[in-house]
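Consider this:
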Amino acid sequence: MNKKAELILEFMKDDDYVPMKAKEIALILGVPKKEYADFLEILHQLEMEFKIGKNKKNRYKVIEENYLEGTYRRNQKGFGFVKIEGEEDEVYISKENSQNALNGDKVLIEIIDEKNKVKSAEGKIKRIISHGKDTLVGTFQNNRNFGFVVPDDKSFGTDIFIPKSEFGKARNNHKVLVKITKYPSRGKKAEGKIIEVLGGPNQAGIDMLSLIKEYKLPSTFPEQVVAEAKAYGNKINEEEIKQRVDLRKDTIFTIDGEDAKDLDDAVKVTKLPNENYKLDVHIADVSNYVKEGSLLDQEALIRGTSIYMLGRVIPMLPRELSNGLCSLNAGEDRLTLSCSMEIDKKGNIIYADVYKSVINVTERMNYADVQKILEGTDKKVLQRYKNYIQDFKLMEELALILKNRRLNQGYLNLEIPETKIELDINGKVKNVTKYEKYFSYEIIEQFMLSANEVIAEKFYWLGSPFIYRVHEEPDIDKVKDLNKFLYNFGLSIKSTNEKIYPKEFAKVLEKVKGSKEEKVISNLILRTLKVAKYESENKGHFGIASKYYCHFTSPIRRYPDLFIHRIISKYLEENYNVSDKFIEEYKEKAETRANQSSEREKVATKVERESEDLKKAEYMEDKIGQIYEGIISSITRIWNICRTRKHNRRFSKI
C-alpha cells in the first residue's frame, strides 16, 4: 500500500470521521485538482481490496471486517486453497465459496471457520482482485460453428469457448495458445481467441514448447542483451589479470555432469605441512561482466534462474557468457572469485579468505570418471589421469571428513532416488531409470557447502547487505503429525520446549537407513520440512544444520549468487570500508531481489517437475495394463474427499 492510500485510510479511521463523498474527502485532505483523478483511482483500489466501501449515498467508510488477500490454488474437484503471504497454512475454500475464481487468481477472502475438522481455517472468496492468467495452453476441440480449448492445467477451472471467427489456423486436437477475452461469470464459460498454434498432439518437442508458453518463459534473449554479451569478446582483459591473484599455474579441476556446459565452479585440495587441508573453491566472476543495472542484469533478474527442462535449457545468461567467457572451460584463462579455507582433521574451518583471482583449469572432469578413479575400476581412465589420481584421493578424504562432521551436527542426508530420463534425437523417451549418484558428486557438494557457509558467516558479521539461503525449522504441529506415523515404527522426532533440532531428524534417518521403510519415511520428512527460500535476513539453514548459509557458487545460473558476488567485489575493492550509502541502497535491493528470486525459483521448480512428469507419462503410454510393484506415498484423493464433504466417516469405510 502506498503512502497516499495509507493517509486516506488513517483519515477514515479517525473517531470523528463520518461517511463522506469523494469530493469532500479530497477537499479536506487538500488534494490538488490535477491529482484528483489519481485520488479517485486510489479510492477505487481500496474499495477493490475491501478496505473501504460506499453506502447508498456514495459516501465512503472503512470496512471493519478483516479480509485477507492471497493466491487461489484450485483443485480439479472444484474446491481449493488460498495461500496468504507470510502464512504457513493455506485457507480451505469449498466449491460453493469459490465465486468462479480460477487457478492462480489473486483473491480477497473472509474467514468463516477458524479451525475445521482437518486443522485448517476455512474461508469464502469475497472478490477476485486480479486473474492469474490471461493466456494459457490447451487442446483445441472444433465443433464446426464454435470450438473449445481444454486447458493443459487441469485445475484451471474452465474450458475456453472459442467463436468461429477466432479459430485462426487451429485444427482439431492441435495444441494452441489462447488469449482469454472474457472470464467466467454467472455460470458462463470463459471466452477467448487463439493467438498461436503450437503444433499437432504427437509432434516432437510440442510438450516442452507448451510448458514454455504456459509459464511465459523467456526462451530467447533480446538482441540488445546478446549484443552486450558479445561485446566482451572471448578473451579476458590483460589489465584485469594484473589486479588479481594469478593461479593459472595451479592444478585445478572442474567436476560436473558429462553434458554440462555452464561450468561455474572449480576446486583444488592440498595437504599442508601441519597435516591440515587447504581447500580452494574458485567461482566464475560473472559480476565482472554482468554489471548492476545493465541490460544483461535486467534480463537476468527477470529470469532469476536457469531452467533445466528435459533436452532443453533456458539459461539466465546468453550462451556467449554462460557457455563461453564465464564458463570455467579447461585450458582457458578465466576470472574468478576464490574462497580458500584451511580445514583441520575434524572438518573445522580454522581460517578462510575470499579474493579475486585468475585461473586456468587443468582438466574438465565428470562425475563418472572421477568415481572410476576413486574405485580404481577402469584401467583406461586410470591411465589417462594417472598424474592426478592422488589429487582426487585427497578430495575424497576431505569430503568424507566434511560430510561426517555435518552428519554429527544434524545434516539431513535424505536419500531420495532421482529419476534419469533418456531421450532420443526427436525428444521422445527411450528409457527411465534410477539416477546413479556417485560419491564424486558428494565431493563437490561438500566443498560448495563449505564455501557457501564461509561466505555467509563472513558477510553476516560484517553487517553487509546480503541475500541468504534460508531454511527455517518445521512447524511444531506438522512434526506432531509426523510423529503419529513414526510411532508405528517405534520412532519419534523429539522436541525441547517446542523447539525442533535437525539432529533429531538425522537420528530417525540413520535408524531407517537401508530398511524397506526408508523411502517412505524420507519422503514424509521432506514434506514436513519447510521450503528453502532467499531472504535478506539470515535465519540459518535447518536442512544442513548451519547457522549461516548463502548461495555463492553458481552465479551463471542463479541471480542471488550473482548479486552477492557484487557485494563481495565492492567490499574487496573498497578494502572492506564501504559507504553507508552503499549499504542502505543494497540492503533495500537485497530484500526485493531475494523475493523476486524466490518467486522465479518456484516457477523453475514447477516447470522442471512438470517436464519430467510429462515424459514419465509418455514412457508409460504403451504399458497400460501391465502390473508393477509400487509404494503408496500419500492418500491425497481420500484427504480431498474428506475436506470437501466434511464428514466423519473413518478411512476404512471410504
In short: The chain has 18 helices and 27 strands. Residues 637-654 have pLDDT under 50 and may be disordered. The two ends are 47 Å apart (CA to CA).
